[in-house]
Write a structure and sequence with these properties.
Chain B: GO terms for molecular function: oxidoreductase activity. The complex is a heterodimer. Chain A is built from 4 helices and 6 strands. Chain A is an alpha+beta fold. Chain A has one domain: Alpha-Beta Plaits (2-Layer Sandwich). A two-stranded antiparallel ribbon of chain A has the order 1-6. Chain A has a two-stranded antiparallel sheet with strand order 2-5. Chain A has a two-stranded antiparallel sheet with strand order 3-4. The N and C termini of chain A lie far apart (38 Å). Chain B is 33% helix and 26% strand. In chain B, the strands form 3 sheets. In chain B, strands 3, 4, 5, 6, 11, 12, 13, 14 and 15 form a 9-stranded mixed sheet that branches. In chain B, strands 1, 2, 7, 8, 9, 10, 16 and 17 form an 8-stranded mixed sheet that branches. Chain B has a two-stranded antiparallel sheet with strand order 18-19. In chain B, helix 1 runs parallel beside helix 2, helix 1 runs parallel beside helix 8 and helix 8 runs antiparallel to helix 9. Chain B is globular and about 90 Å long. Classes of the chains: A alpha+beta, B alpha+beta. The interface between A and B is large, with 48 and 63 residues. The complex binds flavin-adenine dinucleotide (FAD) and iron/sulfur cluster (SF4) (2 copies). The site of one iron/sulfur cluster has 12 residues of chain A, from helix 4. One iron/sulfur cluster binds next to helix 2 and helix 3 of chain A.
Amino acid sequence: MSTTITRPYPDISFDDRMATVEFRVSPRPHITVETEVCRSCTTKACVTACPANLFVPTNDGGILFNYEQCFECGTCYQICNEAGAITWTYPDGGHGVVLRHG
Amino acid sequence: MPERVPAPAVPADGVWDAVVVGAGPAGSAAALELARAGRSVLLIERGPFPGAKNVYGGVVYGRILDELIPRWWDEVPVQRWVTRRSTMVMTPTQAFTVDFRTQAWGQPPYNGMTTYRADFDAWLAGHAVEAGAVLVTSTVVTGLLRDERGRVTGVRTDRDDGDIRARVVIACDGVNSFLAKEAGLLPQTDAHHLTLGVKETLALPREVIEERFAITGTEGLDIEILGCTRGIPGGGFLYTNLDTVSVGVVVALTGLAKAKVRPEELIADLKAHPAIAPYLRGAELKEYAAHLIPEGGYRTMPRLAIDGMLVAGDAAAMCLAAGIWLEGVNFAIGSGMYAGRAAAEALRRRDTSASGLAGYRRLLEDSFVLADHKRLQRAPDLVLSERVQKQYPGMVCDLVQEVFTVTNPVPKRGMSRLLRDTARRHGVRLRDLARDGLAGLRVFG
Ligand SMILES: Cc1cc2nc3c(=O)[nH]c(=O)nc-3n(C[C@H](O)[C@H](O)[C@H](O)COP(=O)(O)OP(=O)(O)OC[C@H]3O[C@@H](n4cnc5c(N)ncnc54)[C@H](O)[C@@H]3O)c2cc1C
Ligand code: SF4
Ligand code: SF4
């Protein structure tokens, strides 16, 4: 008996998925990531867990982060493996994610 | 720049009776009760409108609204009234479903409804405004104001006119509640008691939804799913709206991080499952969203009242997440409403110290909010346990498959024999099965 699922139709690309969400991008990054701190991180848990896929590992063991398409969910700072790697705030009032079907 | 509403008229002495932070269901219910009691209330929301930042699966259980808005069902922005509720246990190639339908839930006073948070939260906030609360949107509360004795005296915001003073602050700022954290009521991080919910809203024509889900008019179906998260503690859901379907998964944060699986992959699995895929064929993605859920329940609730401040809704871990139930909106409305009432009473007696506000906890204890949480406090442990998550779905599906597989000419095996064999194959000891059964009875009984 097979135990894996074959996908009956292709899922959409991640970019198309994120394009369904409205973001009113603030000039101020509400989350910052200290790539120097990330270098010593052994889990890199943020990379797979962030639902917006905003944490990109770099060749030198750091993290490249872009705050623009963020759900403001809190997953990253909650599971982050190294104190001081993530500084997390909400975007300035009225900015950030705007959901219509949440 | 998003537009900001003009600064509200500040009470003559510059001090609001109450500031409510967050115009989710908890905050709007609190503001509504305070405004009705004749108090000056400022309701602050960081999104451009109430609901813009909020995500849930999709069913609001409306009974608690009876206490706030008579005949709310005549005006609420409903998608569908849930008349069919299914619980599905699955493995990648099997699904066992218990399906219940009642026409009673399709008529007043109704039971559950699907609705979008952008619509529902804005509707409830509208009632608070109608009653006299002042709503300011696009405004982030960035911290607490406290006097030299530590008593909360207001909030700091990111508006130019910054600080806002109030006799009582009600923190309804949701699962990440930075206010409760600042006040030392919640730990800075608590990944073990949090789950991540991700969901897709998928468009399908209304008639197609009605045909595929066997519902008529404004009837709706809700499916709760166990066994669809690759062994990561959690579950899945599918809810019908008028012309969209919400599909998603909820998974333990620590389990997700450890498994190194991307959340949208789990939704893709679920959508591709043979029991789900035919429902969704041809559906078009309208919106993808993510949000955390506080699932720790009773034992992780913070202190609810300190000098000058109350905490309600997800900010106080009041979401009831007990496997077959995921109810947060009704618990938020209930706790917000009681917080508003207790604050109004404390204001009347001119004592908004922790002891003056202690009526809040009493109101919660006398209601479903803390009664249900107390009774179900062990449910999260059981539902998210290794056996329930990893072994039972497969065992149940195999057992049912064996029961219905005709083995002629081999004679049928008896049920207890089948159970024993299936359990053994899934590495479940009958002793543990019995123990979990009893625990289940105790937890849910
Ligand atoms: C995937 C998922 C599925 C769910 N399914 C269901 C379901 O089917 N049924 C159900 O009943 N519950 C469900 N829930 C739970 C439910 O969504 C929550 O319990 C409920 O929304 C809690 O309401 P609340 O008012 O306490 O908080 P929220 O709804 O989170 O509202 C908090 C508000 O405060 C605002 N805010 C936060 N911080 C600030 C600040 N500093 N300044 C200004 N404003 C601020 C936010 O923008 C937000 O509007 C689900 C949750 C998730 C994530
Ligand atoms: S988990 Fe934290 S420390 Fe590790 S890579 Fe991610 S952000 Fe950096
Ligand atoms: S808050 Fe959520 S969406 Fe935003 S970066 Fe962190 S994990 Fe990703």
